[in-house]
Hints:
- By secondary structure, this protein is α/β, with parallel strands linked by helices.
- It is built from 13 helices and eight strands.
- The protein has helices at residues 2-24, 33-43, 66-73, 87-95, 105-108, 125-128, 139-143, 166-183, 188-213, 229-235, 253-265, 280-286, 309-325; strands spanning 28-30, 50-51, 77-80, 101-104, 220-223, 238-242, 270-273, 292-295.
- β3, α4 and β4 form a beta-alpha-beta unit.
Amino acid sequence: MKRCLLSLVLLFVFCSTLQADQHAAPRVVVSIKPIHALAAAVMEGVGDPQLIIKGAGSPHGYSLRPSEARMLAEADLVVWIGEGLETFLAQPLENLAVQADHLTLAQALSSHMLPIRDGGAWERHAHDDHAHDDHAHDNHAHDNHAHDNHAHDNQSELDHHIWTSPLVAKEIVELIADKLVTMDPTRAAKYRANAVSTRERLDQLYQDVKAQVQPVASVPYLVFHDAYQYFERDFDLSAVGSVTIDTERTPGVRRVNDVREKIVALNARAVFSEPQFQSRLVDTVLEGTGAGAGVLDPVGADLAEGPEAYFSLIRTMGKNILSTLQ
Length: 326
């Protein structure tokens, strides 16, 4: 009887210790799926971060649900790009998550960020003349803040779609790991090991997609909105414009006609829609141009959450670029 009672006491102590250990892992909340995937990779074997925007939701114009507000209020760490992308989070983070630490990637990586391109119709010669050669494509250049010449104090002048670059994603992984090590030093070795392996995988991802899209690197195309500047830079692609300048406003007749003229004048082979927005607008733009249609998804609407989502996202974008432009 005593032995049985002792066993029960030991089992209770073990379960209590295990439960306390699990609760000690930081409660991490992430805004969008690609960044959530990187956080999940760093936290693998420790805990699972929570995701705010799921499915086909877009960070442009998203509305926070009460359950998501509670998630923020209970968080230890909130990871987001910044007010320039997730405008809907700025006020809740001030009002709700006062106890949480914030990792605002746009601030931490401002030296890696590119200026917003003027309008929606960028000139092709910017690609033909290799105007982006200033941005070294090798990993060493990214690791050593090669984009310091693009540092801006005004975040509204910067393109916040930084996650579409696997090389910038390496920096995001390092920032998340640094933050978690500071918050949870007892698991530092695990976070560091996960970060190293994830960065190595991102290097391989970059090399694979670079080789994948090389046959169509010089083929001009248009995107739905200007969300791929970093992806284009990493892989030397030739996007020449976007259908819409503001995703929250439907382009007028004049804008549609201007885009059609650009497609024809630059012999653009395709226009890419996005699952987050109405594809029939792209169909309207394509009428009479002879260009094809494709799909690019910068946030991975159909991808399962988890550490593999980022790798699937970038590989799928490369695959769709290749299959549409060939």
